[in-house]
Amino acid sequence: MPAVELREVSATYPGLGRPALDGISLSADREMVALLGPNGSGKSTLMRVLVGLHRPSAGRVVTPTDRKRLAVVFQTPAVDDLLTVRENLLLAGALHGHSTRAARERLGTLAPRLNLAEIMATRCGRLSGGQKRRADLARALMARPSLLILDEPTTGLDIDARAQFWRTLDAVRAEEQLTVLVATHLAEEAERCDRAVLLKLGRLVAQGTPDALREPLGQCVARVDLRPDRDPAPVRAWLDTAAPNARWWSAGAIVPNADASLVESCPVDHATVRVSAPTLEDAYLWHTADIHAEAEAFA
Amino acid sequence: MNAFAALFKRDLLRQIRQPTRIVAAIATPAMIWIFFAAGFAGSANLGVDASMHAFLVPGIASMTVLFASIFGAISLIQDRQDGFLRAALVSPAPRSAIAAAKIAAAGLLATAQGAVVLLMLPAVGHPVTPLGLLAAIGALACVSAALIGLGLTLAWRVDSTQGYHGVMNTVLMPMWLLSGAVFPVDTASAWLSYLARANPLTWCHDAMRHALGMHPQSNAAVAWTVTIAFALAGVIAGSATIGRNRT
């Protein structure tokens, strides 16, 4: 049985006017899966449903069935600032039903792996952002989880701390057989995962490996970005002829299998056209373009 | 260590590591006691055979507990804002353990702080027996459980500590003022007396006065029954509230 299996899960919030989750089916096992989408796409609701903090209005969470081997790293660290790192980790062990001895053993394993040995006796309120994040990751790992859920775990971290967080997570994954679900709005973070699930307006739009998601875009993609204060009609007219396979959203368009000549052929100076190898962000825009208009109407 | 013990220890450590809160929870009621007693000493007709200083002691002890319960409730709001509560709720630890640990830790500290006030009685010329003191501390523990349970229930519905100050000012402080803490209920005007008798905290004060030999205004069995029922209601309300999904 996979560590995560959802079948046609929907969820609602009073007053939202649309489902927060709309028939999501998903499974994952011993892989790192990114839930990629902007604010309001349903990432956090999906997490809340998975951990039992929000009851689905329809569908079924097949797994996880209990919380014993489930751990969550939230957007903001859930360590207690008034307790030391050691006290926080032992508390996390106790909350997951481990004996003091078992918790100490686990702590002894995690401290060097997460580079926490020197700050074990420091109160969490005195840690830097990066140290606190590592302590929070250790708190989650005290559960000896088979499923680790990360909800935008690098929010507020600088570039170095973010890189160190991912290196640490990669090291932990190499040591332990973990299924990891990462909710993120950053395509470059989703790029690090084995698979990405693209969410928009509570719907699962596409899923696959980053390469597979980029595949429809070909070797080169053109991003056409409109200036918000100018009339888009001339650009639309040009692209309708020059690249009829373009997909549009309000701020621009994306053209698969593009070549550099498209840049030269742009007749107006109030649109930026860039041709490059496709990124996962391009793939997200491509796959979700059909419901961008709906999203903008909703906003 | 099980989840209850670990969370109980954590809540105690948090309180101990914020000593200003403990000082504030005792100092404010102590100042109110001294100023009220000195201010009303020559003018108030208590209608009971007790000095103003001694009469105020049960009410001031419960005010100390009230302040401790307010800090306990605010810590719940902070736990929710900091994400700690969410992490506890998604762990396999039973929610009853999370609620019980919070009530027990805050209750222990609140009762200890209130007991310090009760220990002042001999100093103001009102002798107490050890048994009487123990019984009064028992009543105070019931007040702690009730007010902390009630505080958690109210705090669960509030999103910010600022919002909780509104609850404190409109619910908790009037409840304390209408409990015979600073005036005898029997000599108050009729409407106020009826209102005070509908307030369970009034009966808690009477239970303490029974224990301390301080001219209670009701039957001991009724006062103790209401006191214990108030404590149970607070614990049940607090536990049931934390058992619900809201993070």
Describe the protein in words.
The complex is a heterodimer of chains A (299) and B (247). Chain A has eleven helices and 13 strands. Chain A is of the alpha/beta class. Chain A has helices at residues 43-50, 85-95, 100-113, 129-141, 159-175, 187-190, 210-214, 233-242, 261-265, 280-288, 292-298, and strands at residues 4-11, 21-28, 32-36, 58-63, 70-73, 147-151, 179-184, 195-200, 203-208, 221-226, 247-249, 252-255, 271-276. Chain A has a six-stranded mixed β-sheet, sandwiched between helices. Chain B is mainly α and 247 residues long. Chain B has one domain (3-242). Chain B is globular, with a radius of gyration of 18 Å. Chain B starts with a helix and ends in a 5-residue tail after the last helix. The chains are: A alpha/beta (299), B mainly alpha (247).
Question: What is this entry, summarized?
Answer:
The complex is a heterodimer of chains A (299) and B (247). Chain A is α/β, with parallel strands linked by helices. Chain A is built from 11 helices and 13 strands.
Label this structure with key terms.
heterodimer, A: 299 residues, Rossmann fold, Alpha-Beta Plaits, six-stranded mixed β-sheet, four-stranded antiparallel β-sheet, 13 strands, 24% strand, B: 247 residues
Topology:
The complex is a heterodimer of chains A (299) and B (247).
Chain A: E1 4-11, E2 21-28, E3 32-36, H1 43-50, E4 58-63, E5 70-73, H2 85-95, H3 100-113, H4 129-141, E6 147-151, H5 159-175, E7 179-184, H6 187-190, E8 195-200, E9 203-208, H7 210-214, E10 221-226, H8 233-242, E11 247-249, E12 252-255, H9 261-265, E13 271-276, H10 280-288, H11 292-298
Parallel strand pairs in A: 3-7, 3-8, 5-6, 6-7
Antiparallel strand pairs in A: 1-2, 1-4, 8-9, 10-12, 10-13, 11-12
Chain B: H1 3-16, H2 19-40, H3 52-82, H4 84-89, H5 95-118, H6 130-156, H7 161-177, H8 190-197, H9 200-212, H10 220-242
